[in-house]
Amino acid sequence: MLKTPASPKAPMANTKDYSASHHGFTITDPYFWLKDRGYPEVKDEEILGYLTEENSYFKAVMKPQEKLLDAVFEEIKGRQKEDDESVPWKNGAFEYRWAFAKGAEYRTWYRRPVGADDWDVLLDEVTEAEGAEFYRLGGLSVSPCGRYLAYSADKNGSERFTLQVRELDSGKLLKDEITETSGEIIWAADSSGFFYVEVSKEWRPYKVWFHTLGQAEDRVVFEEKDSSFFVHISRTSDRQYLTIRSADHVTAENHILKLNTPEGTPAVVVPRRAGHDYTVEHGNEGFYFRSNRAHKNFCVYRADDGDMQEDKWQLVLAGDDRHYLTGMQAFQGLLAIEERKDGLDQIRLLTADGGDSYIEFPEPVYEVGLGTNAEYVPDHIRLGYSSLVTPPTVFDYDLATCELIRRKEQEIPSGYDRTAYASERLMVAARDGVMVPVSIVYRKDWKKGTGAPLHLYGYGAYGLGMSPSFSAARLSLLDRGFAYAIAHIRGGDELGYGWYEDGKLEKRTNTFNDFVDVARFLTDDGYAAKGGISISGGSAGGELMGAVVNQAPELFTAAVLHVPFVDVLNTMLDADLPLTPIEWPEWGNPLEDKAAYETIAAYCPYSNIEAKDYPPMLVTGGLNDPRVTYWEPAKWTAKLRATKTDDNLLLMKINMGAGHGGKSGRFERFHEVAEEYVFILMAFGLA
Q1: Which residues of 482-520 are buried (b: 16+ CB within 10 A; e: fewer)?
Q2: Quick check: is 660 catalytic?
Q3: 258-283 pLDDT per residue, tens
Q4: How confident is the model at residue 664 (pLDDT cuts 50, 70, 90)?
Q5: Does the annotation mark 539 as catalytic?
Q6: Which of 469, 539, 607, 664 is labelled catalytic?
Q7: Is 249 an active-site residue?
């Protein structure tokens, strides 16, 4: 095991008395003080001092590994094409593309008239990001008239985007600057202005506004009063309607407004009712609705314009236990469906004349989804594709010839031979008999039963399935003799919506048990030596990591917890946090429900830290993270260091200028990947 060095000395956080009572139970939390009372501003000097100490400790412990860190970083960077660019796409009278200049951390966006040779710069993110420690582009939208560009950016990782407007011919920035938005932008049909979403002080997207260019006063279009619902806006594919979606994790309500009448009042499609989730599309054939009203795996319905009441919906495509309908996009005379059939991604095409077909792909196991399809009347459908051994690939499916055309495959400049790698799909029996899928990839010279290291990744929440996709960075582990496995545990939606339901609320422990049972199988079946598995997960996947090291620490050589949601009980008891009310359908409401309190308290990673041995651990967080607040990884680290009985290494790194996703630059973020990989190598004695 990777031991704590004698020097430098690890920080020890102060303890302060705190207790709270709910349903007759009392919580004592000596590290509750690490939550700054002024959040989202963090100014408490004692808190900042502790975080700085932990960061200094991290740097000092990792300093002897500088050469290896640099080597791994250069390996990963060397697999990225420095002057990379996208496949161009058509949108109306223009073509668009993005490109990275050699060595650039951020993209430059271009456009040109269809048929022209030269590209004009639309937006240079490199220039926009100058002087900012963090930069993330949100929305990027050209007005229908082609004259204006509206775009949004976050410069500190807080996911509060500032909107700006540029006149493209002159390059002049207009005075139309709007702060505290979600970043989404939808133009009115006449280019007179655009819709955007305001975020509250607590970071809840809740209010839709219309901004008229050149005017100081904006108009409220829609406001969501329920603090458990978040608001997002989009546009139907035929560009006729604005859609306003207000939803929590299980219930949705949509409003629509014609984009040629931005002064109008949005009309509700189907009023919200608990458990009904639906989305709206529109095309020549009328409205389309993807709804779970008849089956948890969703069905697709159609209704005529002006007659979209729910009782007038006509069934287009039924979901069932094998067919999970995950998305859709309307084109003229065609509806493209994103689907999982027996857990495998599919693209299904339904034509207005009754045609029904699937697009065939070159590998038996892969991930695929609809790509950038801006044209309502296309001659092809663009797709994004990859597998565990195939780098991200752009395909165009020719609608006339039914041919799949490879437009681009991610280039690996330092070299990559896919024939040197192999992948498997395993089915592992969990303790309750349910079969859990596992994807695994390794070099072909890797052998079972040799005690080679294995890394196991998992997430398992919110119905967000983990696809068997490619990672260029992962090659740095595979080429050092690792196998890499993904556990498709309950809580995701890999096997349908029911797979998600079986890992939430009172069934949440299925997720943790699945992961532990997969790890035990991989050990018992020779994929890993006893105790020879490193693990990682982020956000809710970080919660997973905390739960499994509490349950079965002996299985793991090392654990990496990225922005981990480990303080579940305290967070779900804090209704003032922006994500808490919307999260209650996922985890339960322990404020009002004693049974939910007891369930969460029984598995909450932070609450269940014990005086026992734990594997070496690396924990990360972001000071500006609005999703998993910085104090969750900080409290976990402080309590674990004071409680555990081993002398295994425990490190924490808090990004003081970033949020949930860590650093933002294209190459800069690879430093953090290199740190994770080197920590894992250290744990296996390979550093």
Answers
A1: bbbbbbbbbbbbbbbbebbbbbbbeebebbbbbbbbbbb
A2: yes
A3: 999 999 999 999 999 999 999 999 99
A4: low
A5: yes
A6: 539
A7: no
